[in-house]
Fold these 2 entries.
Entry 1:
Amino acid sequence: MEDTFRHKGLRNKLVECLRLKGIRDEKVLLAINKVPRHLFLESSLINHAYQDKALPIGAGQTISQPYTVAVQSELLKVKPFEKVLEIGTGSGYQACVLLEMSARVYTIERQRELYLKAMSFLPQIGYNPQFFYGDGYLGLPTYGPFDKIIITAGAPEVPKALLEQLKIGGRLVAPIGDSQVQVMTVVERKGEDSFVTTHHGSFIFVPLLKGTE
Ligand code: SAH
C-alpha cells in the first residue's frame, strides 16, 4: 500500500483538472489532494485511479467520480468538527475526503461485503469514521442530529427520517431523481418545519435501495 511521488503527482493533476471544472473550495481540493484514491481500487484499475471517472468497487457498486465527490463536498460546506452523516459508505473514499476536512464522520452501508471491507481498510490507512451496517433510509436516530448529511446514491426523494435528523441550520446534499439521472439537491433546514431546497446540476449515481443485504 504505497503512496509514491508518481501517485502524488497524478493527484496534483487531478486537483488541477477539478479546479478547471469549477471546483473553488480550497479545503475540498486540499482534501482530494491528500486521499490516496489508488489504494481504494483493485490492482487492475489502479492506473485509472486519478482519472476523473467513477470506477467499479465490487458488489455492483462504484467509487464516485472525483468531480462528483468534490461537488458534494463543496455543497456540504463542512466546518471542522461538524457531525456529518454519510449514506452509502461504498469504498469509503468520500468519507476520507470529509475526514480530511476535519469532519466527524458517521457512515452507513447496506451491503455487508462493502461495509466489512471499508471497516477493515480505512483504519489501515489512518482514517477512522464511525461505521454502521444498515439501511441509510432510516439514518441513525440515536446518533443525530447531524450538522450535515450527504447521500451518495440516487434517491427518488429525500428520505423523511434524514430531514428529521438534520440540525436546524444544517444542510443535506443528495442526488434526487429517477434511475436514469438525478439532480444534485441541497436542503437547508431553517427551522423545525422550514426547509429550503436548491438544485445544482445533473449527475448519475447508483440507486439508493431499501433494506440491507
Ligand atoms: N460514497 C461512496 C460511493 C458509493 S456508491 C464512495 O466514496 O465510494 C453508493 C453506495 O451506497 C453503494 O455502496 C451502495 O451499496 C450504498 N447504498 C445504496 N442504498 C443504500 C442505503 N439505503 N443505505 C446505505 N447504503 C446504501
Entry 2:
Amino acid sequence: MSRFPEDFIWGAATAAYQIEGAAREDGRGESIWDRFSHTEGNVYNNDNGDVACDHYHRWEQDIQLMADLGLGAYRFSISWSRVIPDGDGEINHSGLDFYDRLVDGLLERGIEPHATLYHWDLPQRLEDGGGWPVRATADAFARYAQVVADRLSDRLASMATLNEPWVAANHGYEIGTHAPGRANLGEALAASHHLLLAHGQAVRAIRDAAPGLATGIVLNFEPKHPASDDELDHSLADVEHARYNMWYLGPVAGRGYPQSGVEASGWDMAEVLDGDLDTISQPIDFLGVNYYSRGVVRHPHATAVPTTTVGPRRTGFNWEVYPEGLGEILRFVHSTEVTDTIYITENGAAFPDAGDDLDDQPRIDFLRDHLQVIHEAIEDGVPVKGYLVWSLLDNFEWAAGYSQRFGIVKVDFDTLERLPRRSARWYSEVARTGLLT
Ligand code: FCB
C-alpha cells in the first residue's frame, strides 16, 4: 500500500476544443481546428468538435460530477477564439463570462481551477496571417494571456501558457496530421521558436497582471530507448531525445536549444533574435508533465539484433504501456532543475469499450501502475505535487475523432449522457484517501 502526501492534488484534465462544442455560439471565432476538422479527410470519420461533449452547455453537470467523485482540481483550457475571436482584436466578453462562471462554479465545489491558455486551437485569423511560423503570433498570445489574467487570475490556482508545443509544431507544421495541416520542416522550426517566445512573453504579461499567480508550461515527454546496442540506434535515440524531450525544456530551463537536435534539423536559428532566450527562460512556478508512453528507436541501417522491443501491453492507440518510463522522465526533468514543482498534467489511456460495459479494468491497471511509479519518484525526492488524469470525459481526440476513448467517464455521443466507468469510482477512492492499494 502506498500513501501519497496529505497535500497531493488529485484531479482531472480536459481541453477546450475537445469538449466544449458550441463552436459558433456567443461570438466565438473560428479556430484552426474548426477549419481543419471541417476539411474532408483530415480527421477520422470526418468528425469535428462542433458539439463534442457539449460541455459549454453542460459544464455544471460536469463539474458536479467531479465534485461527486471527490476530485480537488480541474485542468481545463481556454479557447483563444472564444475570448478574442480574431486572435488580436476585439475582446468577446461573453466568451470570458463562460470561463468566469466555470471558475466560480469550481470554487463553490471546492475544486481548484488550473487553466491552460493554449491547447492547440489557434484563432484561424492568426493562421491566415502566417500562424506560429510568424513572430507576431507570439505578441498576440502575450496580449491574450494578459486579457485572461486580468479577468481570472484572482481565482485561478495556476495558469499554464502552452500545452505540448512539441505536438503543435511537429504535428501541425512538420508532418501536417494536426491543424493547420502544413508539412514543412522550416516552418515547424520557426513555429517551435515562436511558441516558446509566446510562452516567455506570456509569463511576463501574466506576472505584470497577476504577480502572485502560479505560472508554468505543460510539456510532453517520452524516453527514447535504442532498440539495440548498435551505435546507429544509440545516436538516433540521442537525437530524438534532444528533439523531443529537450527542445522545449532546454530553452525554458535556461540551457538553450540542444545542439545535437539543432544540427540534426539543419536549423540556422535565424528566428532566434537577441534577448529571445532570456525571455523564454524566465523562472516558472511549475512544470506540467504529460506522459503516455516511450519510444523504442531503430535506425534504418542498424544491423545489431534488437534487444529492446515494444512490449505486449498496448492501449487503443497501440501505444506501449510503459509505466517505468514515467519514473525515468520525472528523474530526468528534476535533474534539469527547471522548477521545484511538478504536476502530472496528463496521463491516461484509451481503451475500446467492451460493448456497453463500464468495467474498464485495463484503464484501472494503467492508472495504478503509473501512480505507483509516481509514488516511488516522490519518495526519491522528485517534487511531484499533483496528478490530473487524462481525461475526465471521452472527447474529440484530434485526428482520431471520437474513435479513441480516454475518459474515466464515458460519453454516449448520441445522447451526450455521462456514464462514469469503474475507473472513475476507483480513482475517486484513491483521490479521497490518498492511498494506492
Ligand atoms: C495529448 C494531448 C491531449 C490528448 C492526449 C491523449 O498529447 O495534450 O489533448 O489528446 O494527448
